[in-house]
């Protein structure tokens, strides 16, 4: 079977930085499924037109396209039930929606101000203009004004991670003894950062940092080569 | 089997207001286990001495005491595997720790400023003095100064609930089609509020409010009688 994952990339095609694409890359590795990760840029709408989606991730298996990370994860779980589970059952799938909602709506919001300028710097020219225009509309101010105090924002980010930290004080992964999709979702945020920024987001003795390293250690060679750490 | 749940109570013994006790009351109902809910007050340490704990909830089954809500929930799941599951399996148990950590460390912190004075007002005299002393030490200011702007705090609470709201837009309960312990944990916060305050915490058309009503509708008669709604 041919399997292609379209992933958001910077000017350097090896620099992948979408947290939503990263969670699917980790989910594919979790399932032990080989795939071709294909770089895609914000302004390459035409290249995705076949899928009916205007953004990534898009997974294409034997010509069938599936867009949106939660839909792709649910598809992988249903299509490959004999591979290691991403959710640990129906209840786990339902419960994981909270980890996803919190990551998308809380964690990402705390992180993005720290990354905006680094993302902008790494994009190719066409994407750079698109990125500035769309993000300045979203934040209502110039990119350079979104994060006037990075140190305070870093403190906010670390405080935001408190519930993750509390769980990781009691078990090695959000999924328990081994990672589940919930881990991949939160790790996607850190891999997003790692793709564009050298900033140390966590203190060395933070249980979240220890977990982040455990997650990095479990990544496949091909994915590690894309992390720029 | 005799089964007693010690629950935090106000001067009126029917006014139960600990979110940690409520989640266990809901868990016992979920498992279909009959129990005697016994009111306990902050300053009645001696009455709990037998259990080795100085706070509630404490569950006593045939003379065996178990303290701390997460430990009690795990005990109920292990001891009554044939009753409806609280977690939906091992993965669900691990994943639910995030809902618990978020509720304890984020949701409760957004809610408590709105409730402090109401709690204080409902306590008996001995507990009232204890409560003021211990909470003023925790917040570093007089109870009356903790929430100078209740409207702003209410807006913060509603914003804090965003990830719960996002999940409940897609499924009727945090646990999926039916409540799991994760629902009981978040609902405990609302029952805590309901025990002492008449404040409308949510807008009528908020998916969280619709879920809260569904949760109330499922509660047993005995528990509904304790909610003062």
Briefly note the structural class of the backbone of chain A: alpha+beta
- Roughly what fraction of the amino acids of chain A lie in strands? 5-15%
Biggest interface, CB < 8 A = A-B, 33 and 33 residues
Order of helices and strands of chain A: EHEHEEHHHHHHHH
CATH class of the largest domain in chain A reads Mainly Alpha
Oligomer state equals homodimer
Question: Within the largest sheet of chain A, what's the order of strands?
Answer: 2-1-3-4
Rounded to the nearest angstrom, the distance between the terminal CA atoms of chain A is 32 Å
Protein name (chains A, B): Beta-etherase
Pfam families (chains A, B): GST_C_7, GST_N_2
Domain GST N-terminal (chains A, B): 8-84
Organism (chains A, B): Methylobacterium frigidaeris
Layout of helices and strands:
The structure is a homodimer of 229-residue chains.
Chain A: E1 3-8, H1 19-30, E2 36-40, H2 45-48, E3 58-61, E4 64-67, H3 69-79, H4 90-122, H5 125-139, H6 150-160, H7 162-168, H8 181-196, H9 207-218, H10 221-224
Parallel strand pairs in A: 1-2
Antiparallel strand pairs in A: 1-3, 3-4
């Amino acid at each position: 079977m041919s399997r292609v994952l379209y992933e958001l990339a910077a000017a350097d095609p090896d620099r992948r930085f979408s947290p939503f694409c990263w969670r699917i890359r980790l989910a594919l590795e979790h399932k032990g499924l080989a795939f071709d990760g294909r770089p895609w840029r914000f302004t390459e709408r035409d290249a995705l037109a076949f899928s009916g989606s205007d953004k990534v991730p898009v997974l294409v298996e034997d010509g069938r396209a599936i867009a949106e990370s939660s839909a792709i994860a649910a598809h992988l779980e249903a299509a490959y039930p004999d591979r290691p589970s991403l959710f640990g059952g129906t209840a786990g799938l339902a419960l994981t929606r909270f980890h996803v909602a919190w990551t998308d709506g809380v964690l990402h919001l705390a992180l993005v101000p720290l990354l905006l300028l680094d993302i902008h710097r790494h994009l190719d020219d066409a994407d750079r203009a698109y990125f500035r225009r769309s993000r300045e509309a979203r934040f209502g101010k110039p990119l350079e004004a979104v994060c006037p105090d990075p140190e305070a924002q870093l403190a906010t980010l670390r405080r935001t991670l408190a519930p993750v930290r509390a769980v990781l004080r009691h078990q090695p992964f959000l999924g328990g003894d081994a990672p589940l999709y919930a881990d991949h979702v939160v790790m996607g945020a850190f891999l997003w950062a790692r793709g564009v920024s050298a900033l140390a987001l966590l203190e060395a003795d933070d249980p979240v940092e220890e977990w982040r390293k455990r997650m990095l250690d479990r990544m496949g060679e091909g994915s590690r080569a894309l992390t720029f750490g």
